[in-house]
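ESCALATION

Customer reports they have been waiting on this structure for their group meeting. Please prioritize. Original submission:
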Amino acid sequence: MSSKTKAKPVFLGIDTGGTYTDAVLWSETEGPQQGSNKGKVLAKAKALTTRHDLAVGISGAVDAVLCKAGTNSAEIKLVSMSTTLATNALVEGQGGRVALIMIGFSESDLARDGLKAALGTDPVIFCPGGHDVHGNTAGLDLSGLQEALSALGASVSGFAVCAYFATRNPAHEIAARNMIRDRTGLPVTASHELSAKLGGPRRALTTLLNARLISMIDRLVAATEGFLEERKIVAPLMVVRGDGALVSAAFARQRPIETILSGPAASLVGAHHMTGLDNAVVSDIGGTTTDVAVLDNGRPRLDPEGATVGGFRTMVEAVAMRTFGLGGDSEVALEEGALIPKILLGPRRLVPLALAGMTHGEAVTAELDRQLRTPNPGRMDGRFAVRTGVPDRLATGLTAPESRLYEAIGNMAVALDNLLTSNAQNATLNRLVSRGLVHVAGFTPSDAAHVLGKQANWDPVAARLGAELFARKRDGRGHPIALSPEAFSERVLLTLTRWSAEVILETAFTEDGLDGASTVAHALVQRAVDVHPGIARLSVALDRPVIGLGASARLHYAGLPTLIGNDCVVPEDTDVANALGAVVGQVRVSAEAQVSQPKEGLFRLASGGRVRDFLDEPSAIAAAEADVRALVAGTAWDAGTDSAEIEVTTEYRVSTVEGQRLFIEAQVLAVASGRPRIAV
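Update from on-call: job pushed to the front of the queue and completed.
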């Protein structure tokens, strides 16, 4: 075949979400650049995400898409994957049990940047050591860590190490990391590997979350690689980072924290690709979360302060996206203590009753029917527990009450009113859920859609029984919450659309420099979207359209335009925007170096884990620029590109004393970007 008629390479995009795994086959139609909008979707498919064995959901989606397109696996030259698993885990408070090692910090530092809340009941060890701002050592003592390692190694899934000013000298982190790896063999994350920014407690938070996510992302990558090998797909595997860039799977395995907002970032790339809109608000509704971000001039806005997910501000550079616990599988609840209780949604994700009914059959529908036959509504009606099916090694470190309850929960759904006998047990169940060991099933907006015939892929009988259980609950006046299951389901869907408008408008306030979540702004948004606004009427309108993404966007966003004062565009392939965005992106990585002046005439360079001294500023800066070029070139290769273009910028901090320039510090940044390598 001549070069003129040679077929364009085919790319496979995969997105593993909380509910569905999507797959898309994409090929360039003309032009040499990926992401040039000069390509077409050859086929797309979906399968349920199977958290107990991610390979099952991946194989279901990919096999279906290969069958639809009639594509031979040998034609696939690149596989790229995005995922919301890390984002969902942080929103839902899930992840492995991790030991945090703090070197040179005190216990009072845990109170900063939400570190104590993020740590929860996980263990923390404080060791003397660390460095000053110029990289000078304070003396290291790891004896306490050494004594604790035997017990910790048997009760945690990984370690996070953060040392004082490790970004200026990582020697103490490296020493602790090596000791832990040698003695336990468990994964260890050191803070200097993730960020070059100052701010120890927030760096420790980022490191802790990274360590907590390693086993989850490792299972995802391993499942994908295993599937590709079985199907004889010989192509590089890439993963989308939180800033929309691509990195190799091996790179992502070591730094899973960088995949938070991976799915949403991929959706932004896909949204721009599908619509051609350069300026828009993108709202991506999934099963667990709604992710809202802004496109300016065709590029997503990045958050220079670091991504905020699940209430935690990290040091991960990612799209400036607000993630809300609001989706098709959000927990439906009623406001407590109100005369006329409002419907509440999320932030926790439940397994929809319709899905549980399809999966577990009579174990769910018979119990729902039993609860309906009781004379009075029960507090735990319509709720079930079931194991997630994760490997037993991830259930280490359980307390005695947790172990007993975990043993009582099998692989078939069990009704909570038969399982729990006290409020203490309910708290224990919540801890098992937060560890990712147990799912809770209950009524969700997805069930409401099944009741109303707007969704039909699962069991509508279980969904309707759940709606009946809710509808017969009583308000503060003793009246039923709704006259019928259909009426209650309508209220749930209207609530989801309204809340969607609120989170979109709050994001717009935030991007305008206001506090979108403040009490006043929140009240204004609620008043503006309320159907009965009261005497003082307000209106709010966006200056750009909304691009609605997600499989359920057409259903839940149909009523958005009147609430946001602008159009809502739902593209044809909106249901696979993440998977599509995963295959049209580029690799982009960076490396940093710092030059400081500890004393007059001495210039200290910290880069690549080394500290070197120079006698003049030009020599130190030149060495810094050479270092970051070499570092970023190596990182770019590891991240999956062999055609990177490198840009280096230097930012100086200086002062003027009696007319003389005084050097304080310089930051040297190198950014490399290029197309991912594809199979020959």
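Sent to customer with the following note: The chain is about 35% helix and 25% strand.
Escalation resolved.
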